[in-house]
Specification:
- The protein is α/β, with parallel strands linked by helices and about 300 residues long.
- The chain contains eleven helices and 14 strands.
- The protein has two domains: about 160 residues, Rossmann fold; about 100 residues, Hypothetical Protein, Haloacid Dehalogenase-like Hydrolase, Chain: A, domain 2 (2-Layer Sandwich), CATH 3.30.1240.10.
- Helix content is about 35%, strand content about 20%.
- It has a six-stranded mixed beta sheet with strand order 8-7-6-9-11-10, sandwiched between helices. A five-stranded parallel beta sheet has the order 2-1-12-13-14.
- Strand 3 and strand 4 form a beta hairpin.
- Helix 2 crosses helix 11.
- The protein is globular and about 55 Å long.
- The relative contact order is 0.19.
Length: about 300
């Protein structure tokens, strides 16, 4: 991908020219990544500049930790990872915190999805453990969707026989997750987090788990305040993440509820909106980022 000059940011608000930002949390899909699942090359010199300024970068995603670590190979020790929608937080390759789902609940969710599939819905379930993610649906289209988000993925015959610390149960719906899968899992909302994390994904997690709770843990560990935090997101699983940051940005093509909740609007992920906005807010010369790409 060839970098180009950064155009003006018409949606960038009037901010303090030198805000005291110490932590930047960024969703991945629909936010940092483009539609082809790529990271713009200007991110890497940006991360080097953030590190020089003492600003911590924090990918905050529904993706598995192993997937995130692979995407940031070589710079992973310099970032904090919020994985599995907040159920797993890691820094420097070491677990900071985690929240597991009880085995009985895992079983009930799996059985609910099996019944939904038997009724005709084109759905499949992923049990997301600390060691690996697990699937019992093995057809190529479903496996391809899972491979995008799970670097460690095991095919099993029966998800009810999996033995692992389960961080999240994710359900992929080839139709509309909001219309079909979310209503089927609604009974679990009384005791657990049930969040639509994408057009086709619904996640079930511990009741206290979300990206915002994880970000507040990171803030406390780093001694960073909400006023010193930026966050970017695009979908419903990012709402709490945005709430935990004073400088909260929805992507231009975000879910309407996210745009309403965020304080500011950033250009779309297709326009490298995260990197462009960070550079503009922190007065990082775009020419320097492009020079960093050429030097790399």
């Amino acid at each position: 991908m060839t970098p180009t000059a950064s155009p003006a940011l018409p949606d960038l608000p009037a901010l303090d020219p030198t805000p005291d930002i110490r932590l930047i949390a960024v969703d991945m899909d629909g936010t940092l990544l483009d539609a082809e699942d790529r990271i713009h090359p200007t991110l890497w010199p940006l991360l080097a500049e953030l590190d020089r300024r003492g600003i911590v970068f924090c990918p905050a995603s529904g993706r598995q930790y192993a997937n995130l670590a692979a995407r940031f190979e070589g710079v992973g020790d310099d970032v904090v990872f919020i994985a599995e929608n907040g159920a797993y937080v890691s820094r420097g390759g070491e677990e900071v915190s985690s929240a597991v789902v009880e085995d009985g609940v895992v079983g009930r969710v799996v059985e609910t999805v099996r019944a939904l599939a038997a009724s005709g819905a084109d759905v499949g379930v992923v049990v997301c453990g600390k060691r690996s993610a697990y699937i019992e649906r093995h057809d190529a289209p479903f496996v391809a969707e899972c491979d995008t988000y799970y670097a460690e993925l095991e095919r099993v015959d029966d998800l009810l026989l999996v033995h692992d610390d389960v961080l999240k149960i994710a359900v992929f719906d080839f139709g509309s997750a909001e219309a079909t899968t979310a209503p089927a899992l609604a009974p679990f909302r009384a005791t657990h987090q049930v969040v639509v994390s994408g057009a086709h994904w619904v996640d079930v997690m511990d009741a206290t788990t979300d990206k915002g709770a994880a970000l507040r843990q990171v803030q406390a560990a780093l001694g960073v305040t909400r006023a010193q935090t930026m966050a970017f997101g695009d979908y419903l699983n990012d709402l709490e993440l945005l709430d935990a940051a004073e400088y909260s940005f929805a992507m231009a093509e975000a879910h309407p509820a996210v745009i309403e909740r965020a304080r500011y609007l950033a250009p779309s992920n297709q326009a490298n909106g995260v990197v462009r906005t960070i550079a503009a807010v922190l007065a990082i010369p775009w020419s320097g980022l492009e020079a960093g790409v050429r030097a790399g």
